[in-house]
Structures are given as structure tokens and as C-alpha cells.
Description:
By secondary structure, the chain is of the alpha/beta class. The chain is about 45% helix and about 10% strand.
Amino acid sequence: MNNFDESEYPWHQSSWNKIANALSENHLPHALLITGNEGTGKKDFSEQLAQLLLCTSVIKNKACGDCPSCKTYLSNANPDFLRIGLLEDKQQISVDQIRQLSKFISYTRSYAAYRVILLNPTERMNKNAANSLLKSLEEPASNTIIILVATSLSDVIPTIKSRCQLLSLPTPNNNEAISWLKSRSIINPEELLEIAQGQPLTALNVSDDTIKSRLEFAKDISDVCTNKKSLTEIAKKWEKYEKYTILNWQISWVENHVRHISLSNPSPIKNENSSNIFNMLESKIKPIKIWDLHQKLIHQKQYAHTSVNPLLFIENMLLLWLQASNNGNQRYN
């Protein structure tokens, strides 16, 4: 999307209006921290906001798309705009990248009233990078707006959060997300949305291979819990798969199961390929261990985007399931 379209992500409309009003009244902060769940459109929101700030011919709170500033932005050549993100094959944003920001701030503006910096994902800066950014936040440059984007607000250091104005983008509820997917002619939106953990944009890109892999991994966990396969064997099988994705699958299964058993009259679980895939696993897990398993899986998120050894990461996750299983007191191999 080039300009904000309320029909594209309707759940963002109120947030966009808030920002547009602040801009029209010249009340925008020098640093804005945008947060929201993954797969709900916050990247597009922040990109559209950057273009709006750079546009020299704003039309009804939207970037015109035709002025020289918009055209150069859309071609990734706007001299008043700097985008900072993860470099290829890197897990963290480095201090050298943030030093580029400091240098950029000293430049003379070419088109727009603002220089705009977009940093995403904020929580993936290393310690030195975060400390370097603090200097720019503490001594803001005139006519410069820094847009920071984060999925995990808890992983953003407090000193950065305290120097930014926070904008929390809402997540559509289940019915809104399903309706949005149906409007795009998506087949089986309920199943895809569950696989995507309620993230409608992620659901658009769920492939048949992902569905198959997800079910295969659940079966492998089940085999580990029943000692049909060794923990090490399964860990080696999955060590090259994206760590964060595999972790989110497991958290989703546990959370869906907890929601299911909390209903006063839960319906029978029938389809292991959909939101009830945990049915395959629940008989292997001690009921009193479900919440403990959930909390420990959540704890693993802090390691998912680090350079931790992938094999060790997968082994640790599988060990959590084994410890929560009926065979939890047995040694693994």
C-alpha cells in the first residue's frame, strides 16, 4: 500500500486518525514507538506514516503519491528518509547502523518539512546500538521524526520507551480477521488464521507446506513424549527450521487447548489439522503441567531471535514437552 486505505486494515483507522490529527496540529512527538502484534499490519502502517510525513502535498490526511518527495520515497531514493532494519543474515541491529542515523540527522532537508527515520524492529538492537540511539532521543534534532517499530514491547529497554510516545496498534478480533480474509477470497480462513495465531496478514501467506510441517512437528512431539522417537533425533530433523515459527506453533496449541477446556461445555475435538491439533498431544501431557508448559514456552521467546545454537534450542523445547508428559521422569536420549 502506498497511502493509508481504511478498507485495507480497518482496525487501524482510529490510530491513523489520531496520528493525522496530531500532524495537522503540529503536535507530533520527535520519537514515536509503534507496537502491535506480528502479522497485523504495523509495518505497513509505519511505512505509510513515513510517506505522509515526507509528502509535500498531503490530501485529506493521506500522502498524495505524486509529489517529488512521494515519488522518490516509493523508489527508495528519498534523501530525507532513512530506513534501518536487520541486515541480511544478521540477528541484531548494530551500533554502526545507528551511527548512520546520527550522521543522517546532520544533513540538510531536500524536499519535506521533516527528516524521517524508520527503525524496525526496535527490540533487535544490540546493547551498544540502543545506547547510541539514546543520544539522539535525548537531544532530538529539529524537524526530525524517528519512528520506532516493535513487536515485543517488553524487549525494548525502558530508557528508550521513556523517551518515545507510544502508539499501540490494535489487533482485529477473530470475527474481524476472518471477515477481512473472506473479503480477499481466502478459502478456509478459520484454519489459516489459527495457524497464523490470529495474525491476518500472516494467514495470507500460509502455504500447504506450512500446514503439513505443522502437523508433522506435532506428531514428532507426540512421539518424543511416548518414547517412540528420541529427542535428539527429532531435534536434528528440525534444527534448520525457523525457530520462532516452531515456537509459536507450540504456544498456539497449548493456548487453544487451555481455551477449549475452560469452556463450560467444550465441543468434542475432531480435526487434528485445525485449531485442535493439541488433541493429538493432550493425552501425553499431565493436566497439571499444561500451564507450566505454556509459561516455559513463552520464556523461550527471548532466545528465538538470538544466535543460540538451533539444535540446542529445539532440544530445549522438546525437553519441556517431555518433562510435562506422562513419561516426564524418564531420561531422554
